[in-house]
Amino acid sequence: MLKDITIGQYYPVDSIIHRLDPRIKILSTFVYILSLFIVKDFTAYLYPVIFLAGVVMLSKVPPSYMLRGLKPLFLIIILTFSINIFLTKGEVIYQLGPLDVTKEGLHQAIFMGLRLILLIVGTSLLTLATSPIQLTDGIEKILDPFKKIGVPAHELAMMMTIALRFIPTLLEETDKIMKAQMARGADFESGNILNRAKSLVPLLVPLFISAFRRAEELAMAMEARCYRGGENRTRMKELSFHTRDFIASVVTMLMIGAILIDRFI
Amino acid sequence: MSILIENLTHIYNQNTPFETTALNNVNVEIGKGEFIGLIGHTGSGKSTLIQHLNGLLKPSSGKISINGFDITKKGVALKEIRQRVGLVFQYPEHQLFEETVYKDVAFGPTNLGLTEEEIDKRVKESIELVGLSFKDVKDRSPFELSGGQKRRVAIAGVVAMKPEVLILDEPTAGLDPKSRDEVLSQIKILHDKYKITIILVSHSMEDIARLVDKIFVMDHGNLVLTGVPKEVFSKSEYLESLGLGVPQITNLMKKLKKSGKDIKEDIFTVEDATQEILKLIRGK
Amino acid sequence: MKNIIEIKDLIYEYRKDGDEKIQALKGVTLNVDEGEFLVVIGHNGSGKSTMAKHINALLLPSGGKVYVKGLDTLDESKLWNIRQSAGMVFQNPDNQIVATVVEEDVAFGLENLGIPPSEIRERVKRALKAVGMYEFRKKGPHLLSGGQKQRVAIAGVIAMKPECIILDEPTAMLDPSGRKEVMDTIYRLNKEEGITIVHITHYMDEAVSADRVIVMEDGHMVLEGSPKKVFSQVKTLKQLGLDVPQVTELAYQLKKEGILIPQDILTIDEMVRYLCQS
Prior knowledge:
The structure holds three protein chains of three kinds. By secondary structure, chain A is mostly helical. Chain A has one domain. Chain A is built from eleven helices and two strands. In chain A, β1 and β2 form a beta hairpin. In chain B, the strands form two sheets. Chain B has a six-stranded mixed sheet, sandwiched between helices. The longest helix of chain B has 18 residues. Chain B is α/β, with parallel strands linked by helices. Chain C is an alpha/beta fold. Chain C has a single domain, classed as 3-Layer(aba) Sandwich (Rossmann fold), CATH 3.40.50.300. Chain C is built from ten helices and ten strands. In chain C, the strands form two sheets. Chain C has a six-stranded mixed sheet, with helices on both faces. In chain C, α4 crosses α5 and α5 packs parallel to α6. Classes of the chains: A mainly alpha, B alpha/beta, C alpha/beta. Chains in contact: A-B, A-C, B-C. Chains A and C meet through α8 and α10 of A and α2, α3, α4 and α5 of C.
């Protein structure tokens, strides 16, 4: 059950999107998110939609795989949709019991729903097509200029790498401890909220203890391999810009440019 | 009959591209009070099988009864199953969570909804049963005990539920030889004195040979071989083809036989081997 | 032969909750030759791990000295040289892999040493090939078996070109096939690459082909010598709660029965040879 969560997991295929420099991908994703919030009417959505569709196609990640990973988020999308459709005041076009569906509400709901879907698909594509290590490398490099003002770029990136490394391990461990406690008659599924919260103690205590033990052992193992922070560290894969990265930046700029022209001119 | 497994099949991720058959039509009969050794290399289906016996996994098809009680029937309360079958996972000390040994061992019995008195009695009993002194450890934190002691407390936590069948998944993994021997001898006492049916999963053929009445061998989700140690260990080539082996001493006896010595091959313990070789030498 | 590790009267003390002083090592003296395969046995709490961590300067002596390639582990300026020369592999394969991709993990130590990228790639490739994990270089560590993870950890160490590797119960959490993978790898590195090995284990069968075995108990070294010499002390080992190989035990039992049989039989073949000639 815990293993079904695929959102944000790297999808290892070789595509031009996978090969792009992670810095370009991260920055483009930001620009893309920004563009979603600049868009103010349906026709302007055309630009980010075309952009996203193009990237999805080039990334070779099967759309069905992406959608499956999004399942857990459907609830949020539906919630956003419902809130907008029922709570926007305006011209009533349909009545559902005590709730009014207004023309403006419908418009707003579709608009916001679309924005949310585009947002989720776009950002999850970043992690689907960028290996965690590249992602953290990219973030570290992007934050590099801010080191001078005290941003611990390397430490942040290292923390992220380790977190990503241990997610599968800890999920597996959770599953194991849960089963072990269930074999001792623990019940994680029934009862009211208070009881359920209480029933998590036998799961959470061992999980925390094990996480601390792992952290301690990992720290020692890292030290034994001469780890001493970010100073004088080299990287196996140096990031470097290629023509494709240049093209990708231009395409992204064109997209947001088109939206800006559409909106303000 | 203590455990009866009929046509048990388990398929993970059924109807998806990741479909894998973890158990394929397994049929098993285990008598009351038997001591069973379950062997097979990693991924052979051992874990999947034992999790079915405890109701943690539901069969894709097939039936399991414990002392005549069908645990795979619809609507069976899990409590019913856990009362009958105790399962000790690998590294069970990782499940300890209470402040004191007493409270931790009491967790299982409390979940069964027993009376205060009964719980108290069982906690006392099971801590002593695993060879620890109740008086010394009951108020201590389980986390300050030694590795071997922690493991025994964890086993006591399952024993306190008084199961009719006790399953142990590699209970000695990672222990040093001394703690290993202690844990194994406590398990033997549980079996001999309290007549509990025991299923021991182990990679150590030496331990299996020393302890069990019967051996079940699994491979690729199939139960491929069952029998008393004598029968199973006589097929050493087959076991090796499955990535398993026989005790070193058995290999020795086989080699001696091959070099023309008049000697019994079906020997699995050092004690028996000593007697057999003495006979050989003195018989000359 | 040159000593690569010299331990002189090593004492290690720590304070346990408050003031109670505990001596984990009570004066250990040990030299390890270049290219030697040394096995350390002893039950939990005997001081094996504590001693191992001193060789990598993860722990520093409370008394006595530890030298690695002639470098004093108390000399802070030599810390990184020492850690590069004496690599360390730990028990739990999960808790020593840092990165999310195998080859990135093997590169970790080299990146810390500030090696240029092109050389890192070359060394990572060689190290992964040396442990037979090259075809897994792009995999996530969580998809590997325990034995495979442990081989990746070994690759991470040998990529740093150490003269010596200390393995702290690397096989304790593995199944028999994983154990074999790891042991074969360690032996190959010792024989083919000439790397000095200090291997800590509970499994006596991993000790029978070592060059030398030492037995630790209560912070002391209590037995030392060739596997034949150490394992022939069946009685002492049993008193310490340790195992001996089954054939060695058999020889011991036969002697007890009055049979004249050498006490240093370690393998099946030796036993067969002996019984067939008599």
